[in-house]
Amino acid sequence: MTGPGPLSYRAPSRYNTGPIESLESRNWNRRQFYRLTRVADGREHVLAHKLSCPPCNVGPLSTPKYADLVRQATFKLSTGEKVFAGQRADGFFVDLGAVFDLGTLRPFQQLHVAGKKLFRTEGEPVNALDRLNVHSIAVQVPLAKVRRKASRYGYADRASTIGVWTTASRQQVRVLGDRVAADTAAGPFTQVSRLGNPLFNEVVVPMSRKDLWNTLPPAEDKRFAQFVEHPELAALLPALYPGVFPGLDALNKSKKPRADLVAILLTGVPAGLIDGFANTTGDVQADMLRLNTAIRPSCKPDRFGVLGGDLAGFPNGRRVGDDVVTIALRAIAGVTVPLVDKTFKPDAAAAAVTPGLSAADVTAPFLGDFPFLGTPYDGFNNPPATKS
Question: DSSP state, 296?
C-alpha cells in the first residue's frame, strides 16, 4: 500500500498543504479578501468587493513564484484606481537603537555629551527595520479623482496641492473569550491611530499627548502647534552635542517660534519661499502629507528631496527612497530657518546631521513600479539559513 506524497497531504490547521501557485490554489487554506470603498461628500461608494490578498511569502516550496501571486493580486478597477493589499518588505530605514539611546547619531557619536567618554570615532549605523515585513495597502488614484476641477494647474495654484493622511480604527469594546467562547468585538469603530508626515507623532508630539493626538482629525492640530513652534528635539541637540550647534542654541534661547517648521509640517510651504515650489493647503494647521500635483516626478531623484533641490521629493509627497529621517533632522537643526529669516545662518553641522542610512541599507530593493515596496522576505530564508 502506498500513501499520499508529501505535497498532497491535507491538514486543515496548516496555512497551506502544498505549493500555492495561484490565488485559487486548493493548497491554500487561509485566503483573505477585502473591499475598497470611496467616501465623497459623506456618501460611500463601494468600488470593488471580495478582492483577494496574496498569501504570505512562506518559502520556496510553499510560494515558489511569489511575484506571480502579487501580479494576480494587483487589481486595476474600472473606475481607474489600481490597488494591492498584502505582505511587502518594510522599506522604512531608521537607526532606532541609536536614536532611542539618548538621542545618539552614530556619525556624530564621538561628539555626544555622554558618547565622547565611550567613542573615539564615528560609528556604523544599523537599520533596525531591515529584513522585516509589513502588511501594506497600496492604492494608485488618478489625479482627476483627487483634484478639484480647475482651468489650469500651475505649481502656485492652490488647486494643485492635495493633503493626505491615513487612519486606523477598531471597535470600542473587546471581550476576551474562554475555553468555550471566542473573543468578540462590539460597539462602533473609533480612530486609534493616524499618520501624515513621517515622524510627526514620534518626534514632535510629547509622549503624554500621543494617544490623544492619534484619536483626533488633522483639523485639530492647532492644539499641538506649540510643539512644532518649539520642538523638544531642537532644544536637545545643543545639549547632547555641546558646541556643535551654537546657532541653534541661540535661536532656541530667543524663544522665536519656528515658523519654518509650521510651514513645512502644518500649513504647507507658500509660494515665494522656494523658487518654483509651493505646497500650501491654506491657513488651517494640520499634519498632512502634502503633494503638489503640478510638479512633475524627477528623472533623477535626490534622496534629500526639496533640501537637495529635488522639488518632487519630501516634503512634497513622500517617495519610498526619500531619506525622510535625515531631512526632518536637518530641518529641526535649523537648515530651513532661512526660508523665513534671511538673517539666520545655520550651523555647519545642521547640513551634515544624519543617522547615516539610505535606501541602499534596505536589503529588499524597491520596485520601479506599483506597489513599489520590495518583495517580502520569505520565512524559510529569513533569517538566512547558515551551514553548520
Answer: P
Quickly tell me which residue has 478582492 as its cell.
51
For residues 262 and 370, state if they share a domain: no
* Domain housing 244: 156-162+197-207+217-361
- Are residues 224 and 342 located together in one domain of the fold? yes
Query: 117 lies in a domain?
Result: no
Q: For residue 383, is the peptide bond before it cis, meaning its omega torsion is within 30 degrees of 0?
A: yes
| Average pLDDT of the segment spanning 313-326 | 98
Which residue's entry shows cell 500555492? 20
pTM (2 d.p.): 0.92
pLDDT class of 180 with cuts at 50, 70, 90: confident
Domain count, the chain: 2
Percent of the chain with pLDDT over 90: 90
Q: Which of 121, 117, 95 is nearest to 108 (CA)?
A: 121
User: What pairs with residue 87 in β-bridges?
Assistant: 135
Cβ atoms of residues 359 and 372 within 8 Å: no
C-alpha R_g of the chain:
24
* 86, part of any domain: yes
CB atoms within 10 A of CB 264: 24
Q: Are residues 322 and 292 in the same domain?
A: yes
DSSP 104: -
Confidence of residue 218 (pLDDT cuts 50, 70, 90): very high
Does 143 map to a domain? yes
Q: Can you list the alpha helix ranges (DSSP code H) found in the chain?
A: 66-72, 96-99, 210-215, 225-229, 232-240, 246-254, 259-262, 324-333
Nearest-angstrom CA–CA distance, 279 and 288: 11
Q: What is the pLDDT of residues 75-95, one digit of tens each?
A: 999 999 999 999 999 999 999
Collect all residues with Cβ–Cβ distance below 8 Å to 273 and sequence separation of at least 6.
263, 339, 340
pLDDT at 151: 77
Give me the mean pLDDT over the 283-295 stretch.
Answer: 97
Does residue 295 sit in the same domain as residue 367?
no
